[in-house]
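Ticket #4471: structure output looks truncated?

Reporter: J.K.
Steps to reproduce: submitted the chain below (334 residues) through the standard prediction queue, then opened the result file.
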Amino acid sequence: MNFRIPDTPEELFRQGGQRITSLGKWLPPFVIFLTISFFAATSFYSVDQGEVGVIRRFGKYFATTDPGLHWKLPFNVDKLDKVKVERVFKEEFGFRTIEPGVNTKYSPQSFDEESLILTGDFNVLDVSWIVHFKIKDPVQLLFNVRNPRETVRDLAEAAMRQIIGDYSVNEVITLRKSEINLAVMEILQDGLDKYESGIQIDKIELQEVLPPAVVKASFNEVNEAEQEREKVINESWEAYNKVIPKARGQAEKTIREAEGYALARVNRARGDAVQFLDMWEAYKNDKEVTRRRLYLEMAEEVIPKAGKVYIIEPKANGILPLLNLSERGERDEQ
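Returned output as attached by the reporter:
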């Protein structure tokens, strides 16, 4: 039906009524189609891998669904929240990553409000760190925490300030990083569990721990002086460990030699005393035999050391040399 501009109001109303009548034929099927489409769109849903679906019926928790295709009550009677339970989230403190990759880009903005921390010896450090966490209970996450990321950030910053406040500046920079990571992780997890947040802390990573830029030059000079002092101390201990143990070993050796010599002299003196007593007993029993034996033993000991030996007889007219047959035999053998 062609539409033309009416000449009178009556003609306008008549043409409008005819068009409404023609549209009324298609309106019910169109409404039915929209209803079915909306029913399907609000009833069927899919959950991806690494996620779970939390169903709320009239705002109250109803069920948790695994990955796959599922059905729920339409028309927003059941509402769906998808939670990534296998993904590891991270929050950065003291810096922000703009574009990760091989050439990572960081934000040039300053984050001194969260990175400047007071140490136990009243020094200020510029600390940056990362908190890695996962969702262990999606129901607690949705119903007990309004803003999970802000909660993690606030608790992590409070825990880091508390722990670093217990250490000196040198301990934080050099020696105690692992201990600080574990202590902050423990305090942060306790706080999240107290709130029943459903968040599991995976790890804490201290990144750069530096003095503030305004005192960095002076701090480096102090640090170099500390390193030089440690170097001198280590060199002194090295020299000490070379000389002192050697001297102690030599002293111990001398003491052991003296003790051995004293023991040998005592044992020898005891043996000589026993020998003298035995000899005295033999002399008392037979003086002549003992006297002769002593004489012969002494002669046997002295004569080999005397060189040439001459025997003088009282009635002889000359001196008779003693022929040393053993010495001549040794020369003949050579």
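Triage note (M.O.): checked the attachment and the full token line is present. The mean pLDDT is 82.
Status: closed, working as intended.
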